[in-house]
Design goal:
Helix content of chain A: 55-70%
Radius of gyration of chain A: 19 Å
Oligomer: homohexamer
Largest interface: A-B, 69 and 69 residues
Shape of chain A: elongated
Distance between the termini of chain A: 52 Å
Largest sheet of chain A: none
Chain lengths: 134, 134, 134, 134, 134, 134
């Protein structure tokens, strides 16, 4: 159960309602997800969080599916249940089937392991990124 | 400084040498990275780790650049310096410029924040992935 | 479901009972929280954990509300559900309303993001704390 | 060494320069910290990150010292060296001496331990925050 | 609820069935755990994961109980509920009683705290492992 | 560089000196490690931390080498450099050679991967520990 009462769309203040309407129009959905309804208990933080997500998650040099895959990789690494569910749904809607999802998660699993081995042996870098660019 | 003495290519046992040669041939590089030279202190673990990485990091339904981006996202979320350096070099070699790298890391930063907010408010899922598939 | 059977107050050994009574007296509550009942399966660890928490969580140069806010920030960053619930209740009891809670969590979300960006770009320190003290 | 070349103030584009000037004016400092110079490789992300930090880190219902303490608690929990240095300097400048810093970090250490014990024993909540508010 | 439909033993392909049979024979159990049934949605990843686990978790210079204790320590530090449950059952089956489990978890709790204190104060190493070997 | 000035043994207050002497006598070493010298900036926290570590790290139902292995597994999972160095030295002194260290770290790497896969697929427990005890 969430630690604050989720704000209902019907009772939202005009400031919150404006964000809720923009979320529904941008995402082409009929209802506002629970995370935004919780953030709405602090309207300025809701605005900051939504405007940032909207700006970052628009397609740019990196396409939307890749961005959602990154979001899923981060969420799985952090073990955030709400976000794992949400971004798994998102990549499925964007066309990733179970086999491709399996490939994505295999990479996530692999580097969670390699990261800890590199730390555990205190390995020093072979080559620095800046050097690679020249 | 690494916590074990890195195995030199010149002193490697036949078992380790076979893996080192496969690493260099597969990655088309002249030297073996430090992480493999540390893992070589336990030859069976070296074989298991390299064969797994080789199998998972080949292009499949998901392309290699996306896989390296996932590796970077995981490594940044875990704060693994060796791996951040290594995978930043990899995505740069595969053509990601600083602006696209900025987009990738913006998504990483965004969801590290959203993950903690979803946990902090103990938000329950809106919709489950399984439901989305039907 | 907890992985060990929680020790009931009525069946506690004298050693465990003494800690349970001190917890109830110190926190001015009628029952002992589940975490202490689980730790009671190893009485010495229960004593060590409670005496440490009691010593650290008394008001000092830093007041109790700030200490509970730190506890919540740590728990949210770690994604520990039991602790997020427990410390959210604690800060609410100490007077933090939903808007102030929103401010606290906004800071938690912000720096979980900034932390990963600083790591991802491998930024080196601008100034060291020791230098700042002189 | 950072993975991208840090943008120099003298070579910044007008868009980046505007953010750099606002950072210096807001923080009353003579130079822009390395993290902003790295983020400047993606000007839109620089703007989003700075405007968010500026909005969240202004004093509100929660004062600035408490906000910097939260930032330090998060950074220590994540083990982000750059951020630990930066926020330790910040709390020192705001008047926290070594003994008070010790109290803050004692709380950070304590709950990193308690979080893992609560998870390890899979303890279920005693009381939910919502119940506490009624 | 899992994000993919778990593969039933009765409907498994020959490739998946071979792994399932090996899991049951190796672990001397009558049914395949849920984690393997989820991984079976990507048969190659199932094979890679199972063959690696089977190779690493056989007794060697380190005995099986110690290996399961390490698995539990890692799982508790990561806060992975499924794995905490699974490895707690495993150590109990191998003979660890509640008091010994309490000792193990006390060490896990202790060093989650000490790790964060060492990071928070940015302590530099006293002595390096390589030096210790000479 | 540490964020506080490390307390020198020669300038320690009687309260701190007593802890330093106990550390040296208990660990049979000639100098006090840096972590204790940093904690000494808050003498009460130094006492609490040392007395807890001393109590938990004495051999009990679990032997000292296993406890140091757990400490290393936790430190590697958290990526704490100071602690990884320190506990690697400790296990080496207690007789673990490079091959056995490789086995330990293979288990650490394995379950950091399995943990994230179990979370990523949101797997539910097969069997609960309590059930296993009956």
């Amino acid at each position: 159960m969430s630690t604050v009462r989720l704000v209902e769309e019907s009772e939202a203040s005009p400031r919150v309602r404006a964000v809720f309407e923009d979320i529904k129009a941008t995402k082409k959905v009929n209802r506002v997800s629970n995370i935004w309804r919780a953030l709405a208990t602090h309207p300025e933080h809701l605005e900051l969080s939504w405007s940032r997500l909207k700006a970052i998650m628009k397609p740019g040099k990196v396409d939307l599916l890749t961005k959602e895959i990154i979001a899923l990789a981060v969420s799985a690494t952090n073990g955030c249940n709400y976000c794992i569910n949400s971004h798994t749904v998102a990549v499925q809607k964007l066309g990733l089937d179970d086999e491709a999802l399996g490939e994505v998660l295999a990479v996530v699993g692999l580097f969670n392991s390699m990261n800890k081995l590199a730390d555990a042996y205190q390995i020093e870098p072979d080559i620095l990124p800046e050097a690679a660019r020249k």
